[in-house]
Write a structure and sequence with these properties.
Blueprint lengths: L2 E5 L3 E2 L5 E8 L8 E8 L6 E7 L4 E3 L7 E6 L4 E6 L8 E9 L6 E2 L3 E5 L2
Parallel strand pairs: 2-11
Antiparallel strand pairs: 1-3, 3-8, 4-5, 4-9, 5-6, 7-8, 9-10, 9-11
């Protein structure tokens, strides 16, 4: 079974860039028809999908976050990375990486990592 693990700083200052990495084991991020997503949950709110990088390397982002978001990958390390620029305290959330195939729901999730935006 695929396992995912998020890593990165837990505290980011306003206006800086948030950078998180998801390390994948038990499967390859280039496996056909799998999509590798970032999702977040602000305190007291629901889940918000941020974007994905596909098995092919193509990316797609939430329209509301598109201007500040970049997702990339390192296939040699089987990792994919989220960068969210110009952060504000509203970007404080638990950030998750997750994967799904082309038709199914999210089948595997990381445990989540808390990111706080504060000076």
């Amino acid at each position: 079974q695929v396992q995912l693990q998020e890593s990165g700083p837990g505290l980011v200052k306003p206006s800086q860039t948030l950078s998180l990495t998801c390390t994948v084991s038990g499967g390859s991020i280039t496996t056909n028809y799998y999509y590798w997503s970032w999702i977040r949950q602000p305190p007291g709110k629901g889940l918000e999908w941020i974007g994905y990088i596909a098995y092919s390397g193509s990316t797609y982002y939430s329209p509301s976050l598109k201007s500040r978001t970049s997702i990339s990958r390192d296939t040699s390390k089987n990792q994919f990375t989220l960068q969210l620029s110009s952060v504000t305290p509203e970007d404080t959330a638990v950030y998750y990486c997750a994967t799904k195939d082309i038709v199914g729901p999210f089948g595997s999730w990381g445990q989540g990592t808390q990111v706080t935006v504060s000076s």
